[in-house]
Amino acid sequence: MVREKVCTECKRFVEGKICPACKSANLTRNWQGCVIIIDPESEIAKALGITAPGRYAISVSKS
Fold it and tell me: How many C-beta atoms lie closer than 10 Å to residue 13's C-beta?
């Protein structure tokens, strides 16, 4: 099973070669944990610094 790619800038899961949220091409498959944010005003979203709904990795390694 191939791990999904995650943007190293905003930690959003990405299907293509460029993150649709922040337009970064810096992607990695080296991530841990996943959180789905429905309400960006929630305490969890605020604690993680997330401002838009979506699926995000909790920890991302840039290497």
Answer: 17
Residue found by looking up tokens 């905003």 in the block:
10
> Does the predicted model carry a pTM greater than 0.85?
yes
Among 41, 37, 19, 39, which residue's Cα sits nearest to residue 28?
Answer: 19
pLDDT tens per residue across span 27-57:
999 999 999 999 999 999 999 999 999 999 9
Q: Which residue range(s) make up the domain with 33?
A: 5-60
Q: Cα(12)–Cα(51) distance, rounded to whole angstroms?
A: 11
The CATH number that applies at residue 54 is 2.20.28.90
